[in-house]
Predict the 3D structure of the following.
Amino acid sequence: MKNNDFTQWQENIKSIKIEDLNDIIRTKIERQKRPKLFMTYKPYLVGVLSTILIFALLVNLSPEFYVFAASNKIIAPIAELVKIANRNDIQSAFDSDYAQEVNQKLSIDGHDLDIAYVISDIYIVNLFYKYTLNGEEASKQPYLVLQDQNGNELSHTSQFHYYEGYVWIEFELDNPNNFQPLTLAIHSNLQDVIKVVKTVIPNSSMRAFELIDKNINKSFTVNGQTIIVDKLEIGAFQSRLSLHTDPKITKTMGDIQLKLTYRNVEADIISNGSVNGGYTIQFAVGQLQQPGRIDIQITSASFISNEKTSIELNLETHKVTGLPDFLSIKET
Amino acid sequence: MNEELVSKAILRDDESLIVCLQSISDQLTWTAYSLLGDTEMAKDCIMETTLKVYKNIRKLNKPIFFKTWVIRILINECKNELKRQKRYLPLDEEVDIPVSRELDFSYVNEIVDTLPFDLKQIIVMKFFDELNFREISEVIQTPESKVKSRYSLALKKLRVEMGKI
């Protein structure tokens, strides 16, 4: 064996250098850093994001949950952060001295309601209060009923929100506001005994925005049937579009769907159905939001044939006649 | 090898890992080159090794074994590369060495190249990585006695082949 040759071969191999290998090693590792961090924390990130997503959904979809979250000092800032489309109209109402002070208290069976303000318009009554149950902030809101002075219930639709430390309940009035003093009743159901206490809430028209009433009177033909849009009424918080179907139409309109575009935001609105042949479609855009331009487009309307208006059931033969085409009866 | 640095690398300190790998980059180059005979291929295998080391560093139990562990990964990479190129010689295979060659040290390279991979890797680790038999046995997961006998066999084959020149 020629040891000299072998040594020379070794030295030759040891003289070989891969250019910039140290830089290559560094680059190779540094390029992996970001995915590594992501992969390491991926399960935590997914968990945190899922929690935030669920929390955001609950805050935006459940007014009760939002009120609960917003009344908790720790999670309130997060609730405010993830709340989409916070209403700026209430802020405008306060800024323009539209809020009436109430300063009334309702107490029953540990429920304590401290009513601070009322803001009302022709369609809506907003109440702002603080509520405790047995001296502590409660996660669930009490059962409140808005009545007139004669004890008639004025609203069957209400929503809870949260505003500047107050719980804000938004009552949608069944009939236009007559600006007479209101009564707020709180129901306590303790040991299956329902007790009610009431207080009077001011509801002055002096602090009400005048309703803007725009006549439209335009007719549209949908599926061969004529729909006439009568007018648009714009309240402080809400607007209502009134329409009716042409009496000569051969079918009865079941549902009408509109697309509302306001400040580049689109919303689909479905009517609540007909009242005495007329339809009223309401949407939460009012004067206090300074709407500027509102585009309303009729996107669909369903019609039911007028031909068969009744269904007959023969009690002897158990036969049914007069069913519309889309309906059938199945024997079980 | 600085064990403290390796310990940091195991705990996901990337900078420490980079320094550890850079400190043995020459040995990695010599190992890969002497097994593959090509700097580009050697570079590719070292890059692949770097990636595997980075991904699996937490599996390294004892910092003292860092170098042998990295070399084991590199040798496997080289072995796979040779297999891909159908240049891998198993232990029981003999290759004829061309008779005519230039009478300088470069013929040693060709002779080493004709050694079966299992013998060649021991020569490479002994001469370029400066590993002892115990460390080589760690790298190739073979008993130390077998490593020694293969090393003797490799040298014998080299002597025989070089004696023919």
About this structure: Chain B has two domains: 1-88, 89-165. Chain B touches chain A at residues 12, 14, 17-18, 21-22, 25-26, 28-30, 33-34, 39, 42-43, 46-47, 50-51, 54-55, 104-109, 112, 127-128, 158-159, 162-163, 165 (CB under 8 Å). The two ends of chain B are 40 Å apart (CA to CA).
